[in-house]
Amino acid sequence: MHMYLVVAAWLAVALLASAGIASIVSDWVPWPARRRVVRPRLWGYGTLVGTLGLGLMFVQPPDETGFGVLLITGWCLFLVGMIIQLAAQRPGRRATKTAS
Q1: Among candidates 21, 89, 91, 7, which has minimal Cα distance to 50?
Q2: What are the residues whose beta carbons fall under 8 Å from the beta carbon of 67, sequence distance 6 or more?
Q3: What is the mean pLDDT of the segment spanning 46-67?
Q4: Lower Cβ count inside 10 Å, N or C end of the chain?
Q5: 39: how many CB neighbours lie within 10 A of its CB?
């Protein structure tokens, strides 16, 4: 039963990574986030960083001795990816002319 859950989790990670790559390459965003995302490439980079973190969390699950380095690193990368995705929902700054 555990192997089924691991395979399902890795398939979800692969699906998220492919959505991130599609967002970077072609400015395409999946339909649940399409209305909110203003900068699709930044959203794609955030998705890739988040899925890298999820992958690291699956490599070394928590055990009875405590949390491993890969688990904590994966969790931090996942949070950074979510922050980048949140920033992709905000409009960027417009370039202004400076007084010379």
Answers
A1: 21
A2: none
A3: 83
A4: C
A5: 18
